């Protein structure tokens, strides 16, 4: 999303007057969830502005954000996660807060069935999410929002520790732990969502279509 992200981390980019991360925070608040941590890395000081509106937020700094994949962000917040909870990518634009369940009884990952996608997706095997990969057919397109029970959260932390013993472990997405590398340890339910429930905007061109005020940045 350059040039916008030269000065502003993507989660803080405004879309029709509200930033990506605010739509996520508001969705959680609408379900009575206010115990929210924000893992920040690139231009981390920019996130301080959120405290004016959400003084209860707690920040976790990932100063190694450029040394590996998002698994390093998961590592930074692992000590706050033994009781489980939600994990959300900070650049989702949430249009429907009901994608968040109030009292989930099992771990789940959001996915919508598609015939084909070039995006991140997973398969359904024995009624659970598995085989997370980039691109696929007859699969579920993934959305970066999931819930993890206390039992699964403890397993995630344990498997994370095991994976990071390998120097190459930092190059994985954290989702590879429960959906690929250690999938036999988990039973992750697929929670269906409609593409309109959450909007994923990845480029300046897509942003300009969603918010015409950015058309000046499109050649």
What does this structure look like?
It is a single chain. By secondary structure, the protein is an alpha/beta fold. It has a single domain, classed as Alpha-Beta Complex (Spore Coat Polysaccharide Biosynthesis Protein SpsA, Chain A), CATH 3.90.550.10. It has five helices and ten strands. It has helices at residues 20-30, 71-77, 150-163, 176-181, 204-210; strands at residues 14-15, 18-19, 37-40, 58-61, 85-88, 92-94, 108-125, 128-148, 189-192, 198-200. The protein has a four-stranded mixed β-sheet. It has a two-stranded antiparallel sheet with strand order 1-2. It has a two-stranded parallel sheet with strand order 3-4. The model has no long low-confidence stretch (mean pLDDT 93).
- Per DSSP, the total helix count is 5
Question: Uncertain segments of ≥5 residues (pLDDT<50)?
Answer: none
Question: Quaternary status of these chains?
Answer: single chain
Overall pLDDT confidence: 93
The CATH superfamily appears as Spore Coat Polysaccharide Biosynthesis Protein SpsA, Chain A
- Counting helices, strands and paired strands, the structural category is alpha/beta
Number of strands: 10
Portion of residues in beta strands equals 25-35%
Q: Which CATH class is shown?
A: Alpha Beta
């Amino acid at each position: 999303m350059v040039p916008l992200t030269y000065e502003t981390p993507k989660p803080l980019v405004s879309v029709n007057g509200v930033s990506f991360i605010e739509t996520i925070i508001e969705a959680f608040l609408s379900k009575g969830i206010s115990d929210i941590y924000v893992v920040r890395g690139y231009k981390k000081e920019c996130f301080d502005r959120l405290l004016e509106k959400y003084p209860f937020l707690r920040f976790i700094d990932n100063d190694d954000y450029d040394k590996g994949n998002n698994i390093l962000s998961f590592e930074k917040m692992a000590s706050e996660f033994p009781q489980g909870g939600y994990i959300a990518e900070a650049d989702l634009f949430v249009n429907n807060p009901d994608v968040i369940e109030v009292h989930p009884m099992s771990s789940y990952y959001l996915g919508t069935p598609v015939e084909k996608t070039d995006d991140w997706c997973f398969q359904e095997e024995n009624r659970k999410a598995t085989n997370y990969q980039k691109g696929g057919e007859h699969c579920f397109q993934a959305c970066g929002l999931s819930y993890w029970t206390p039992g699964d959260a403890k397993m995630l932390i344990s498997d994370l520790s095991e994976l990071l013993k390998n120097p190459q472990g930092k190059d994985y997405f954290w989702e590879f732990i429960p959906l690929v590398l250690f999938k036999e340890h988990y039973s992750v339910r697929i929670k269906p969502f409609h593409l309109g429930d959450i909007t994923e905007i990845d480029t300046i061109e897509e942003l300009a279509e969603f918010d015409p005020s950015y058309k000046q940045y499109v050649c």
